[in-house]
Known about the structure:
432 residues, mainly alpha
Amino acid sequence: MGAGLERIFRLKDNGTSVPVEVTAGLTTFLTMSYIIVVNPQILAAAGIDHGAAFVATCLAAALGSLAMGLIANYPIALAPGMGINAYFAFTVVGAMGLPWQTALGAVFLSGCLFLAVSLLHLREWLVNSIPLSLKLGIGAGIGLFLGLLGLHGMGVVAANPTTMVTLGPLGAPATLLACLGFVAMAGLAARRVPGAILIGIALATLAGVPLGLVTFTGVMAAPPSLWPTLLQLDIAGALRFGVLSVVLAFFLVDLLDNMGTLIATLHRAGLMRPDGSVPRLRQVLLADSGGAIVSSLLGTSPTVSYIESASGIAAGGRTGLAAVVAAGLFLLCLLFAPLALAVPAFATAPALLYVACSMLGALKDLDWDDATESLPAAVTALSIVFTFSIATGIGLGFITYVGVKAIAGRWRETGGAVWLIAAASAVMLAVE
Length: 432
């Protein structure tokens, strides 16, 4: 077995060993395993069967991570992305009123588009053409979007017909436990405890048991059926003109999320070339785009490369064996469905707020002295949360960017991809 692993993953060439990679894979899994609890609850809000969403989440994470490990040989795990899953459930299905089957069709089409630009070597052109300020604005906007959902789920924020939002019932037991769960997550993360988010969810859940807020039906059982979501996507419905903005939003978020994670994690692992290029980039692109397509077939929002993989890299992970270990652990989770499905919404909502807070750090890298860069980024971030739509926020951000640059006489600084996306966004918004 040792010789086989050496041949597949080239452990010695990467200065690592089987025990180190196994430890790294376990560390990565612990830091991102909260998704198997959070994602099914978010998808359930879109009308997707909770049990099927749990199975789809575990399988999508396992298959995506396995592909990254075996095809690209990188210690990066994949799973349904935070932010894009909320967009799927609360905007596309909730606010826009599309059936979840049509939303899955849009995920499939965005994955195919992702694969096409990867195979045709257009991905680098797109990523390099989109200005850093808009990338940062999109990341921060998704963070604000998640933050609003998290605060509402915790009970801290409630709707109000006069002020739109107001303070929720802080004295409610579920709200208090949710707040304590968030504080636990933040405190444990500050101490660099692996699995801080998962531990915070577990603590809030256990604290709710004596209060009658949680009901356990067991620990282990056969996995729920996947049939309610398997191959239920509606591709024909997603091809309608009005849904193309959703496809574009899924595509852009998936593209930027994966590329940002790839650059950040591989740079930290010392696996990038001196000129900043990424070895085996084609294989990475195939794993990323293939994961999004498989997600739609299983019945979940798109998978993305997880920045939490940096925790496994910090533990010494340097090869795809770490990702394969994480994939195996996601498969093992299928046996613990009763335990995962018993976790209440108030216990997972703090995870949304925690992830949101970490994503807002992108704003610090904006050039606030250049209004042509900072203002479009701010419009992007604010529009995402206040229109309750990632697609709309991205579109308004690109339109603002080209408009401000043109009026400022600096239109030559705007790449062709930005003009293309801005024009497409203007058409999409005009017909909605």
